[in-house]
Design brief:
Shape: globular
CATH superfamily: Thiamin diphosphate (ThDP)-binding fold, Pyr/PP domains
Strand order of the largest sheet: 1-4-5-9-8
Strand content: 5-15%
Number of domains: 1
CATH class: Alpha Beta
Largest sheet: 5 strands, parallel
Bound molecules: thiamine diphosphate, magnesium ion
Mean pLDDT: 91
Number of helices: 13
Radius of gyration: 19 Å
């Protein structure tokens, strides 16, 4: 498939932004009184970033807890994403709301309980179908989440009603400490699509072009009213589940092997080989991203930390 040069570069810039944001948040969080509360999405950026970039204004996306950076790829200004990730007040909105809820960008919020939001977003796809908005919904969740009941029920009904939705499993091999092989006897998660009556794609989640191609095909199919798809993007969670995870369950050397498969240098090399990117342009993109991030962090730090009472207010309002 022929992806336009501008799109290839946009993906590159967003991947670099995602990685630098992730690293910066780890550094910023360690200065917070509550410590580095981050579920890092490093090395797993390809599927969420590409899916976000393939969507437009009228499309919805349910992000997974590791991929806050995709809000920017979906159109949210970086400084607002950073302020949200830093748990600061953002504009006129209620304090913590922005983090996962910005309907004008197609972000309808998400639940802390894994899987519960997938039937809700499946309902959003039903609304798109009934109202004939021409929009599609993308639902991103992890391998562990994919083993939960609400997600199976949502995919079953989406298959029957041919909803305009794409389900993407980020198979990063673990749900906290539980490897995929302890969740299911068939670790080829896309095989489940057969039971839901939709196409299933098993794809290298660290290969930008491979993922781009299947995701683009699945979104187009949904947009043309031909129903849902299930994509399983295979990747790896390089860091612990969150910081403070002792990671004693990992086989020795496993993370080091996956580190060699970092999707960003791999994609950078591909673009340079194709003459789309030069070392010089890559350096310029890196500098621009870091400068934009610096401004965003400054903005986040300039906002007050919300009062504790806001926790309950935003939960129940
Ligand atoms: C219903 C429910 N059970 C348990 C948890 C605690 N929990 C948060 S993340 C997580 C693991 C999720 O694994 P996966 O879906 O593979 O996503 P990953 O963290 O690997 O990105 C668990 C068990 C939760 N939030 N909700
Ligand atoms: Mg996982």
């Amino acid at each position: 498939m022929e992806v336009p040069k501008e799109k290839l570069l946009e993906v590159y810039r967003q991947l670099v932004t995602a990685r630098r944001l992730d690293e910066r948040l780890i550094a910023e969080y360690s200065k917070e009184p509550f410590g580095p509360y981050i579920h890092s999405g490093a090395y797993q950026e390809v599927a969420p970033v590409v899916a976000s970039l393939l969507l437009g204004k009228k499309d919805f996306i349910k992000l997974h807890h590791r991929f806050g950076y995709c809000q920017h790829a979906k159109g949210v200004p970086l400084k607002e994403v950073v302020a949200g990730e830093m748990f600061r007040k953002v504009g006129p909105r209620k304090s913590l709301e922005f983090k996962d809820y910005a309907p004008e960008y197609g972000l309808l919020g998400k639940s802390g309980s894994l899987g519960e939001d997938v039937p809700i977003y499946t309902g959003a796809a039903l609304a798109q179908q009934i109202k004939k908005t021409g929009g599609v919904t993308v639902c991103i969740f992890g391998d562990g989440s994919s083993s939960r009941g609400p997600i199976h029920e949502a995919m079953l009904v989406a298959g029957v009603w041919k909803l305009p939705i794409v389900y993407i499993i980020i198979n990063n091999r673990y749900a906290v400490s539980t490897p995929v092989s302890q969740q299911t006897a068939n670790t080829r998660l896309s095989d489940r699509a057969l039971g839901y009556g939709m196409p299933g794609y098993e794809v290298d989640g660290n290969d930008v072009l491979a993922f781009y191609e299947v995701c683009d095909r699945a979104i187009k199919m949904a947009r043309e009213g031909k129903g849902p798809s299930l994509i399983s993007a295979n990747t790896y969670r390089i860091y612990g589940h969150s910081f403070g995870d002792s990671q004693t369950y990992r086989p020795k050397g496993e993370a080091e092997e996956w580190r060699k498969l970092d999707p960003i240098p791999r994609y950078q090399k591909l673009l340079i080989d194709r003459g789309v990117l030069t070392e010089e342009l890559a350096g310029r993109i890196e500098a621009e991203v870091l400068a934009e991030l610096e401004e965003a962090v400054k903005y986040g730090r300039s906002l007050p930390v919300p009062p504790v009472e806001d926790l309950a207010r935003t939960a129940f309002d």
